[in-house]
Structure formats: structure tokens, C-alpha cells
Automatic annotation (TrEMBL):
It holds the Pfam family Pet191_N. It comes from Drosophila lebanonensis (Fruit fly). GO terms for cellular component: mitochondrion. This is Cytochrome c oxidase assembly factor 5. InterPro entries: Cyt_c_oxidase_assmbl_Pet191. Belongs to the PET191 family. Involved in an early step of the mitochondrial complex IV assembly process. GO terms for biological process: mitochondrial respiratory chain complex IV assembly. Keywords: Disulfide bond.
Amino acid sequence: MMRYEGNEKLADETACAGVRADLKMCLLESDCCRLDKKTPRQCLQENNVPPECQVLRNTFYECKRSLLDNRQRFRGHKGY
């Protein structure tokens, strides 16, 4: 999880925005994007990302899924 100093806030205030931002930064800092000069989408499609990014991808999936699941209404959204 990325830590923001001071009064920094994400421009995106929607649900799952924090997970999305962390996943984006993880992918951009991966060797696939930096050294191979591929886009994050290509790296995800080739499954060529580090385990930390895989965990964030799964967390992002679960967060988006919880938005559609009516049983999750009372429990709140997964993610941060």
C-alpha cells in the first residue's frame, strides 16, 4: 500500500481508487514495464508481473466484485 505524505489525496475518490492507484504504480515499477518497455496491460496479459502486483490485481478484482454483490452492501467494500 502506498503511503501519502501530508495532505496528499488521490484525484479519484471512487470506490477501489486506492487499490487501483497501488496496482498502477506496482505495474509501472515492474521490470516488465521499465526494462522491456511494455504497457501495464501487456504485462498483465502475459502474466509477467511480480507477486506483489498479482496480489494487488486480485484485491482490485475483489473490490470491484464487491460493488456488484448485493450481499456485500452491509459489510462494505473490500479494499481501501
